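Example record

The entry below shows one chain as it appears in the dataset: sequence first, then structure tokens.
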Amino acid sequence: MYTNMISASFEGVNCMAEAVGVLQIFQSLAKRDAIKRCVEKKNSDLYLLFIHDVEEVRREFDENRRAPPLRNDEPRWAGSALWATALAQNVEHSWSLLQAATYFMPTSETKEAEIAYKALMGVVDEYMAGCYKNWVGSMGALDSSTLQAKLDKPLMKRTNHTDTTEREFLAVSTFNVKGVFLQCNFDQDLLALFTEVQYWEKFHGEFSIPYHAHDLYNQKAKFNAMREHVMRIVDAYNKILCDLSAVERRLFSDHIRKLDKRINQGLQKLTWVSKGIIEHYVNDCCAHCAEIYAIVRRFKEGKQRISHQCRLASSMLLLQIDKNVTYAHDIFEATQAARRTEMKRRLQQSHEITQLELRAIFTNFCDGTSEVLREWREFVKEIDSQVEAALRQAVKRSLQALSRAINGDAMSEPQTLFCLKLVLENGRIDYKPTMISLTHLVNIVAKELISTIAVVPRLCDILSPETVKQSSVANDRSDCSALTKRHRSFYSTISNDEDMLKIVVQIMNGMSLAATELQRHLGYWERYKTLWEMDKEAYIRRYAKANRSLKHYDDDVTKYRNQQTKIEHEDISHVVNFVQLDCALLKEQLISHCQQWRRNLLGLLNKNASQGLEYLHNLFADNTRTLCATPSDLNELSDKLRILLDFRSNSQVIETKILPIEEM
């Protein structure tokens, strides 16, 4: 059980120091033979572990000795030696622990571990000596004359790449223009020498540093300070070029040329042994680089602000179509007119900002050479193209919004945009406003939408070098607008654009399709056309002459009452494509016609009843008056008797006339 505990104690051991410490504890407790044998076995296992570690280190050393895994800032020879020393130190530390454990019983593995350790240390020592020898050999040609030649180099050189330091690499590696950028021209062999000496000194005298190398290394601080100051110029100059594209560099060619004249001393005359570099040359060059860089930053910021204005212009919607809002004809027209006025104001404001930015930028190039002025014209054309693209996008998005509202798209149905009323005028049903008027309105809105951009003039016309100079002298914007234009306006170009014309055609096709659908809808109401087409007075006259029966009257009145009920149950509104139809007024007019027909028929019936009743009343009154009068002679009596007999004989006829009147 105790031996199991010993074995379990070694399961969590990960390094030689822990293993030696655990084994030392159990060595002092081993009194019985079984425990001693177990401890001796762990002793042998410990040496086997050491031999395994030595073999792993030797394998890693052999694999990487020709190309050690060094960092970028580590020298070739001293770095390799330090790498090998680091590998050997781990093994050496483990061996020292084993040697310090005097209570260990010697085993066959002990001798084997010692041989492996000495072999590894011998190889490492030989490798470090070889690295030192190679380094000393590489410096064999470095004498005072050679050193002077290496220091007698210009401070900087032109390059399109760098392979010296990471700092320079980040400054210029993203461009491939030959001989454009600056690079610190300090000799790479001297830099390597400084680093080698610094690393060989870490061996604390184990390897002696040659006198001339040590003497040169003592000047490292001075040369590093000089390199740092030169790198200030390199960084500042390359930062200017990195911020400018190849086209923009041509625009800044005068500024760069003036800066090059000041820097050329460091490219041709001044060397690493020259005096007064820091006080005069570096400070002067850095000051001018800072001045040029400030101009470059203002140029870049101005371009960004112009791009922002272009993005704002491209995002403008030149018409206003609110969701879930149905427009009347006049309201839609007034809404779009107000929207166009607002968009014109915003476009003019944005264009004014763009002009001011460009004029501010031009102050840095107004005195430039013909080449710079030519590049300025190209730059203004580029900005002009950006403005044109932004305006084209704004017009296209606006026309597409109108087309989407009228025609719909793959994702949505047409929007209910307009409200038309159905009215009965001049004997026919029509829309108010008419579809022709509505189509004309949409066509005008589409054209006026495009004409909104007419308030934006061409930049290449008003911001050419000559124009800007004249404008600066006159200090009058009206002079600029009065200049002769040499380019087609934005409005002329965009209004004739094929894409815009296609969208306008789509809009008009949608209007034509809606007109066809609406005309078909008018046919639905033709079922009631007899209500307004028939001449009511002529029909009533014919009806009166026909002496129709009471049943005919009742059937006709009931017919018009049913028609009125049917009209009342018709939908008050319909949606056809993008148009909402309001049928309320038409229904009122048709119901009014039904009521008028009923009134005319009932009026005629009332008239006939009145006439019949009046006739009977007069008949009874006249006969009563005649019969009640005292006859004066026999003839008059005979006439009254005859009248009485006739009246009695016609009583049935009279009764037949009374019955219809009662039913009325």
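Notes for this example: The longest strand covers residues 418-425. The two ends are 131 Å apart (CA to CA).
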